[in-house]
């Protein structure tokens, strides 16, 4: 669906709720970080960057990042980063498009998929709600840390 703020708030809420590592939150924004800057600056790069916004491309990228870490935490990095990226892709599926959408089955199929419930600007209307929820989660987290530290 959404804009980057919505992805961050959803990722942060689940990361805190399920006590996941910060890699989960990074994964929640990873697909757009890997692709959007390039397609905005150079729209012709879409077909080069699009594989990094697909399950196969993200799995390979998450595995590459995990292998940059020591063996003891590779599985944790891969699973948390991958789960965050999975959340991102699932949220994106709800977004409607005028033409084309997400190529979930790349490189096996060019069939594009979307659930088609929300237009891109809808998540912007909901931004104040996400901001309040994000602020509430941050204050709750801060209070828990203060209480734990005495
Ligand atoms: Zn996205």
Please, how many helices? Answer: 7
Sum up the overall morphology in one term. Answer: globular
Provide the number of structural domains.
1
Residue share in helices?
55-70%
Detail the topology: elements first, then pairings.
Blueprint: H1 4-17, H2 22-41, H3 46-49, H4 55-66, H5 71-93, H6 120-125, H7 127-149
Description:
There is one protein chain. This protein is mostly helical. The protein has one domain. Helix content is about 70%, strand content about 0%. It contains seven helices and no strands. It starts with a helix and ends with a helix. The mean pLDDT is about 90. It binds zinc ion. Zinc ion binds next to helix 2 and helix 5.
In a nutshell, what does this entry contain?
The protein is mostly helical. The chain contains seven helices and no strands. α1 (4-17) packs parallel to α7.
Descriptive labels:
single chain, 150 residues, binds zinc ion, mainly alpha
